[in-house]
Amino acid sequence: MAQQLYTKHLAMQHEQGRDIDADESNNVVIRQRMNLARVILDQQGCLVDDAGGVRHLCLVQQHMHKKGIMFTTFIFPLVIAEMLGIEFMWSSDSDTMVLEYTLERTINTIAGDPTVGGASSGRLTGPSSI
Fold first, then answer.
1. φ and ψ at 55, to 5 degrees?
2. DSSP state of 19
3. What residue spans define the domains of the chain?
4. Which of 31, 53, 74, 127 could anchor a disulfide with 47, C-beta 3.0 to 4.6 Å?
5. C-alpha pair distances (Å), 121 with each of 20, 108, 113
6. Rg (CA), the chain
7. Does the record bear Transmembrane helix in its keywords (predicted)?
8. Which tops the pLDDT comparison, 94 or 110?
9. Would you call 97 helix, strand, or coil by DSSP?
């Protein structure tokens, strides 16, 4: 869906005789998807920006492809962080074990360098990966 919107926006720029601006198209897609995420959160009663609202949230979606899941885990944290006015947000798969100090170390990686936009931690999914 996001790819279709991106392609459509590029085509509109071309039809209007404008220079193609991929950054503008990317921003349009991100904003549109963020608006959709806000609607979904609202429809599900997830008032994350309310003082008494949700503080833990599990997003479930049909598994179609990794790109779609990664896009979801990119968009929803952007929306929730914006709604709550927070700088850092953690997201992981439901089967991920988070070891002691993992969050602190990961956040310190990001906070220590203003040019870093994200961090990835080592992942353990059970005895086979230890």
1. -115, -15
2. P
3. 1-91, 92-130
4. 53
5. 37, 12, 16
6. 18
7. yes
8. 110
9. strand
Q: Which DSSP symbol is given to 129? A: G
* Structure tokens, 120: 């990835």
pLDDT at 109: 85
Count the Cβ atoms, other than its own, within 10 Å of residue 75: 20
pLDDT tens by residue, 37-75: 999 888 888 766 677 777 677 777 777 777 777 788 888
- Tokens at 81, concatenated: 């962080």
Spell out the residues 6+ positions from residue 49 whose beta carbon is closer than 8 angstroms to its own: 83, 84
Contacts 24+ apart (CB under 8 A), 105-114: none
Residue 80's CB: how many other CB atoms inside 10 A? 20
